[in-house]
Amino acid sequence: MESTNRRNFIERTVLTGAGVGISGGVLKVFGHSAVNIGKKIGIIGLDTSHSVAFTKALNSPEVKDAYSGYKIVAAFPYGSREILSSSERIPGYTEEVKKYGVEIVNSISELLLKVDVIMLETNDGRLHLEQALQVIKSGKRMFIDKPVTASLADAIVLYEAAKKSGVPIFSSSSLRYITGMDDVLAGSIGNISGAETYSPAKLEKTHPDLFWYGIHGVETLFAAMGTGCKRVVRVGDENTDLVVGTWSDGKIGTFRGIRKGKADYGGTVFGDKGIKILGSYAGYNPLLEQIIHFFETGISPVKPEETLEILAFMEGADLSKANNGASVELDAVWKMALGKVSGLPER
């Protein structure tokens, strides 16, 4: 039987406001009527190639109104100041987005005065909570690039703040929309019985192992499997990770993280009517389409409890590694994270 730690938290906080709620124990996203919130997008963080890719996609002259007229009009460059591989990109990426008419501002507060919605792109997930809270206070809808935060505890605080303020937020890796996933979710292979996914899994010492890059393949796994993972086991070495998750209905999902040799994105999903080999990485546009729809409607394509469970899965994998591959219950991960949370933002 599921521990009350995770269930009580979800019912008490994340799922009882800001467009989400529990009915009969099942998560429902309450409909938000489309509102004219404006089309001006602001970016926080020019330390990732995602910022440049989104700017080119939305602001290129040939695009015109392909994305419902949304344009990136301003950006605050920072962004990581401590992770060299990220911070050294900022000057070049700043100049790149300026070519597309993006104004560079000196603070998040200045940015919020100029835009209608936000893309939080900072590569350093440790900064996301602090930066996101400023946006939430403004009431603006926000997409948060992966990872939503660098810890489950921070994510709990973030979602609680968004809930209390009634501010819709959405977070996802673009690998959720890998080629072939639409067919799987549309029922092409029947009921899903399991999945195995893989992706590069480069490490960054400032982040829990899978949070930095392995999250891409983990997101693909959860896109296929959905929520309900109960326990994880992680084995591997400096070149490879293998994380095995057991879901509450007995389904098995695995993620393989690659750090040596040919690295790519993909996977296989197993169903009672067929087996689907996922195709190539589909680029940023499928995610960008979801982001724009989210800005228009205020409805996140990914439910809060799924994003939180992805973080719990990755933290559980780290605990398993630290304990020589021992099985780790995700309820224990939730209990540890909730123990770290104090002083939730006031209503």
Explain what the structure shows.
Helix content is 36%, strand content 22%. It is an alpha/beta fold and 347 residues long. It has a domain at 176-283 and 313-332: 2-Layer Sandwich (Dihydrodipicolinate Reductase, domain 2), CATH 3.30.360.10. It has a seven-stranded mixed beta sheet. The radius of gyration is 19 Å and the shape is globular. The model is unreliable at 15-36 (pLDDT under 50).
The description of the largest β-sheet is: 7 strands, mixed
CATH architecture of the domain at 176-283 and 313-332: 2-Layer Sandwich
- Look at the structure and name the CATH superfamily of the domain at 176-283 and 313-332: Dihydrodipicolinate Reductase, domain 2
As a percent range, the share of helical residues equals: 25-40%
**Ranges with pLDDT <50 over ≥5 residues?**
15-36
